[in-house]
Design goal:
Shape: elongated
Oligomer: single chain
Structural class: mainly alpha
Helix content: 40-55%
Low-confidence stretches: none
Largest sheet: 2 strands, antiparallel
Order of helices and strands: EEHHHHEE
Number of strands: 4
Number of helices: 4
Strand order of the largest sheet: 1-2
Distance between the termini: 92 Å
Strand content: 5-15%
Length: 133
């Protein structure tokens, strides 16, 4: 009589951690948590890479070095990309305007700079809630 082992038993369907759809895990990967959809696999690899960068400083440095090397080999990439993607350029300009407005809104200070001798500055609280100029 032949007995079945855990590897021979059919796997039950699981829910994908990315898309939340049911899938049958591959028999070779008993702890599989992502389905085989390319978008889900891309997300799985992205999350692995984020975790690896946080936990391994050598990996982070190697990734940064590889990105810098690529940028040196392709110095005109972004210029060409912007020339061929007008929607990207416009979206970036809009986002920059929002960032500039937010930065200017936060630029109001509650401290004034008083001139001191020998070129040193000292911050002093503003009286009566006036804005420093």
């Amino acid at each position: 009589m032949v007995t079945s082992t855990a590897l021979e038993e059919p796997m039950t369907a699981r829910w994908c951690a990315c898309c939340a759809r049911a899938f049958d895990p591959a028999p070779q990967v008993p702890r599989q948590t992502y389905c085989s959809d390319p978008a889900c696999q891309r997300e799985r690899r992205r999350l692995w890479q984020v975790a690896r960068r946080l936990s391994d400083p050598d990996y982070l440095k190697n990734q940064a070095d590889a990105q810098s090397a690529w940028a040196r080999r392709n110095p005109d990439y972004w210029k060409a990309y912007r020339e061929s993607h007008e929607d990207y350029v416009e979206r970036n300009r809009d986002q920059q305007r929002v960032r500039n407005a937010r930065r200017n809104r936060n630029a109001l200070t509650t401290m004034a700079v008083a001139d001191l001798h020998e070129g040193l500055d000292e911050l002093q609280p503003i009286q009566n809630g006036k804005i420093a100029r």
